[in-house]
Write a structure and sequence with these properties.
Blueprint lengths: L1 H12 L11 H8 L3 H13 L3 E4 L5 E4 L4 H12 L6 H19 L5 H11 L9 H20 L4 H20 L8 H20 L2 H32 L1
Antiparallel strand pairs: 1-2
Length: 237
């Protein structure tokens, strides 16, 4: 692992970017004063992490890779997979981050970006009529927040918010938090999102912050109620 870290440091120090060719294996052996087996193991580790790509055939070799945000979120999600995260845990973080993101985007989004958010809201115009539709609506409503996060200038903030949306989506599906039907969650959530788009379009940062904060507080209370209902059914069953 130390050799893999040394190779990563070397890549950064030399300003290499995605697609740049790495030195040959023989060069690596001499450069890092390590055996062929150690260098190969280090390269396998980096390839598994998505940091390098190996191509075969003419023009092949090892090249600098790049871990996508989606893959990074998936790997981070694995860390929390067997931990007993609650709705309260997730919303505690969301309430700190998302109102500030919303405020920072007020008046900064173009009509294409605002339209993309409205397109997401348009995917759940009416209350769900089945459990399957309820599940899809929950996932789509969280996609609204993931899309909003993509529009932010702070890449770290956007990544964290997108991760929160993903992990809550996974938790909702795995624990079946979309059961039973919750029309109030649909109605109030959709209203908050529509109000937020209006505030963003108007460039009203304080209103955007307020709407998102209220949205988080309301969603947390309603989702905790869903969580309690699921637990009650589980114990009763």
């Amino acid at each position: 692992m130390q050799v893999a870290d040394a190779i990563k440091d070397w890549v950064v120090e030399h300003g290499l970017r995605r697609g740049d060719r790495l030195p040959s294996e023989q060069d690596m052996i001499g450069r890092f004063a390590m055996s062929k087996g150690t260098i190969r193991e280090a390269m396998r580790i980096l390839e598994a992490q998505g940091l390098i790509e190996t191509r075969t055939g003419p023009g092949g070799g090892s090249f600098v890779g790049e871990v996508s945000a989606e893959r990074a979120r998936a790997l981070l999600g694995n860390y929390f997979y067997f931990r007993d995260l609650s709705v309260a845990d997730i919303y505690q973080v969301r309430r700190l981050l998302e109102p500030e993101l919303a405020a920072s985007l007020a008046g900064r989004l173009d009509e294409g970006q605002l339209g993309a958010l409205e397109d997401v809201i348009a995917r759940y115009p009416e209350p769900a009529r089945s459990m399957e539709e309820e599940r899809e609506q929950h996932i789509a409503s969280l996609e609204f927040h993931a899309r909003l996060a993509e529009f932010g200038e702070n890449e770290l903030l956007g990544f964290l918010i997108g991760f929160m949306a993903r992990i809550l989506s996974d938790l909702t599906v795995h624990r079946k938090l979309y059961e039973p039907h919750n029309i109030e969650l649909w109605r109030r959530g959709r209203a908050y999102q529509s109000d937020l788009v209006g505030a963003l379009r108007a460039g009203d940062a304080e209103r955007a912050r307020e709407v998102m904060r209220d949205h988080m507080d309301t969603a947390r209370a309603l989702m905790e109620r869903q969580e309690a209902e699921v637990l009650k059914r589980f114990i009763g069953g």
